[in-house]
Amino acid sequence: MTIGANTIRESAGDRMLTGLCYGVIFIFTVVCLIPFVIALSASFSDELSIARDGFSLFPRRFSLSAYKMLFKSSQIYQSYAVSIFVTVCGTLLSLLVTVLMAYPLASGKLKYANKINFFVYFTMLFNGGLIPTYMLVSRYLHLKDNLLVLILPILINPWNMFLMRNFFASVPASLAESARMDGAHELVILFKIILPVAVPSIAAVSLFYALGYWNNWFQAMLYIDRNHLQPLQMMIMKMLRNVEFMTQMAGQMRISALDLPASTIKMATAMVTIGPIVLLYPFLQRYFTSGIMVGAVKG
Predict the structure, then answer these.
(1) What is the pLDDT of residues 171-223, one digit of tens each?
(2) What CATH number should be reported for the domain holding residue 254?
(3) How many independent structural domains does the chain possess?
(4) How far is 102 from 165, CA to CA, in rounded Å?
(5) Distance of CA 264 to CAs 41, 48, 75, 95, 238, Å?
(6) pTM of this structure
(7) Residue 43 lies in a domain
């Protein structure tokens, strides 16, 4: 590569290497997209064609039976609303708590900061166990059949907190010191100076929290009994179990198993559940890599 007065000229070898890298990335992207396309095609296929011909990139016999069965019950709309509410509110609350905990630990001025870091790290290795946690949440905190039970027990993730703390530690201390000399309060420094710089880390951590809340069904299985409070993942899991049970009982009920969209409805549920996350990721993708890399620099 030669550098001229105003332009940079690439040699033939540089162009070949660049083309090779783009080619490898393109092939890798296609390989990653093929399973998604096959699942999408199967969700719009007829159960008989899936059983006879297998999966394909394009539907051999187009059918909406899986989506009709999936959206036949009004409960799916309630579950969608519950999942969206829990994901949005939980992500915002988790970000707030994570930032308010990570910033003092990264400042180096908090007393007993090392001990607090150890206690947080300890929770990544050990927990109280399922039965004590269930008793605490249901009997003493009285959160059973409450939407808060889907947020508060998993409000903060230690790994995300350390990621955010490391990012704050990488921010030049001169930014905060100059603001303190002007009489700014710590909260003003955090929200007016530090957070605008920490957008990549916030985007990465928010995506982690959003994925955790959106895919969480275990908390609902333990603490939610009312149908109208069940999130989407829990409702989908119950529906798939019912379809599998009906498929097993099809012979006794004198119904052909091919009349029940067992395979296609699994693919349709996958498309329904990943939709919001797929739409969210492109908006955060440009911050994602930089947030991970900067947050992982210091330990």
Answers:
(1) 887 777 888 887 778 888 888 888 888 888 888 888 889 888 988 888 888 89
(2) 1.10.3720.10
(3) 1
(4) 4
(5) 9, 10, 20, 37, 16
(6) 0.77
(7) no
